[in-house]
Structures are given as structure tokens and as C-alpha cells.
Amino acid sequence: MAKTSADLRSPLSRARGLGSAKDGVHHFWVLRVAALALIPLALWFAFSVAMLAAGPADYYAVHYWVSAPSVAVVLVLFLATALYHSVLGLQEVIVDYAVGSLRLTLLLISKLLHAVIAAAAIFAVLKIALA
Amino acid sequence: MSTKTPAQSRPLSPFMLGQYYRFQWTSLLSFGHRITGVGLTIGSALLAVWLIAIAGGPQWYGAIAPHLHAWYGQVLLACWTWALMYHLCNGIRHLFWDIGRGFELKTAERSAWLVVIVSLILTAAVWAVAYVA
What we know:
The complex is a heterodimer.
Chain A: H1 11-16, H2 26-54, H3 59-67, H4 69-97, H5 100-130
Helix pairs in contact in A: 2-4, 4-5
Chain B: H1 25-56, H2 58-69, H3 71-98, H4 105-131
Helix pairs in contact in B: 1-2, 1-3, 3-4
């Protein structure tokens, strides 16, 4: 590519392609990889819970459903992928609408809450499945 | 050190709305994607509560189950189902844009309709499975 007079970036910077945020397109890319994985996972989750609700859906039925190894494994995959996609997506929303110290505060709160939700939800599934 | 730049007075999104952009059908889908996205984040916290209640035993589950069957719980679950299906369908639309397809104005407007219709069909299908199957 010919170097134009308007391009102020050094050849090394352009070759690395990491941009001003220093992580290149990583955030963009992993958000979409997670999105792709969530297409089958979210459809599975919605229709599985619907089938569960069609039955007796009391405590024992729900507990039995989660405790099946195939369900527990896919549920953990769904939770981890969904919360990863969620923390990346919410970060985009926060940096678009909040500035200064509010931006940093909201980003930190979002990361903390996502970590807590992911840990609690996945722990709950494992506790049910391994009980 | 550096002098203070007017960073704080820069316009912040969505400042283009109203004054500069006319209303477009496709913008509505774009807002919807963000709103349902944030909604689903909140929903994930409720999903965690549900799973913790199952792990906690019959008493814990019994504490939240009545809310799921109450009218407000059912309304929330219906909105949640649609938000998930809408975000999923419009997300697929975004993935097509990411590989450079569907940018034609006509195509974007048609795919917007398709997203709304398919998300409603999928929502109806989930509830049909829950109530009819």
C-alpha cells in the first residue's frame, strides 16, 4: 500500500494493526465469535426451558433436568458464552454514553457484576449436577 | 503537564438524533438491539437467581416459583423470550453486515421486517411448546 501524506502512522504501527486502543479488533472479533456460538445455544436454552415448562415443572422436575450431564454441560457453555458476550456488549454501550469517571465506574461495576453472576450461575449448575 | 482539552464538552451519542437524522425504520431496529441487549444482561442475573434457587433446594425454589407463575412473571417471561429472539435474529442480521452483505437500503429495510416477523414467530413457537406440547 502506498504511503499517503495524510497517514501519520509509522510503518511498524500499521503492520501491527493494533490501533489507538492497543488491542486491534480483538473486542470486535470475540464479541462476534461469542454471538455465533450463542445462536444454537440460545435457541437450545429457550426451547428446552419451554419443554420443561410443558411438564410438571415443579422443583424435582427442574432439578432433574439441570442434573442431566448433557444438560449441565450445555447450560454451563450457554452461561459462560452469554455472560462473556454480555460483558463485551455492555462495555460498548457504556463507552458510547458515559464519559470521564462515570465511564470508568460503570465499566468496573459491570465487570464485577458479570463476574459474580457468571460464577454464581455456573456454581449453581455444577452443585446441582454433581450433588 | 498538558492543558485541559475540551473533551468534556464534546457531543455525546446519540446527539445526531432529532436535529440531524430523520427518523428511519432501520434506526428503530438498531435501538432495539441495544435495549434488548441491556435487558438480556439484567435477565442473566434473574437466570442466575433461578439456578441458585434450584441448587438451594425445595424451600428456596418454592420461594421464587409462585412469582414465575403469577401474571407479572408470565408477562416478564414473554417479554424476555421476545427480547432474546429479537436480539438473536437481529444479531444474525448484524453478522451478515459484518461479512459485507445486505447493506443495500432496500435489503436492510426488508431484513428489518424479517427480523421482527421471525422473532415474533420464534417467541410464539417457544410459548406454544410450553403450553401446548
